[in-house]
Amino acid sequence: QVQLVESGGGLVQPGGSLRLSCTASGFTFSSYGMRWYRQGPGKERELVAIISTDNSTHYADSVKGRFTISRSNAENTVYLQMNNLKPEDTTVYLCHVYIRGYDYWGRGTQVTVSS
């Protein structure tokens, strides 16, 4: 059974940093690309970052230069380092993997950027 569990969210001041983690189980983690999305109330889900099996990465323009996605295959975990956070980054962040025709999502972790 595929499971994705996010952690690391919280309240941070503008300009601050957070590191999100997504720990995976139930599949061969090293064989799949991983993604971070975010979704606010009443908004469409937005792709934030992608990391492939060869560690190549892709970022949304809105986070480029501020966020860094990485992975540890030994720990079955994907990370999202978020620096220089802005109030507009406030939302729920979700981990995602696509396996053999199915989308799997974690429950998400709330990030709030406010003074």
Write up this protein.
The chain has no helices and eleven strands. The chain has 115 residues and is mostly beta strands. Strand 4 and strand 5 form a beta hairpin.
Descriptors:
single chain; 115 residues; mainly beta
Q: How would you sum up this structure in a few lines?
A:
This protein is an all-beta fold. Helices cover 0% and strands 53% of the residues.
Integer average pLDDT: 97
Specify the biggest β-sheet.
7 strands, mixed
Q: Structural class of the secondary elements? A: mainly beta
Q: Which term fits the overall shape?
A: globular
- What ranges have pLDDT less than 50 throughout 5 or more consecutive residues? none
- What is the count of DSSP helices, taking H or I runs of 4+ residues? 0
Question: Care to count the β-strands?
Answer: 11
Radius of gyration: 13 Å
Order of helices and strands: EEEEEEEEEEE
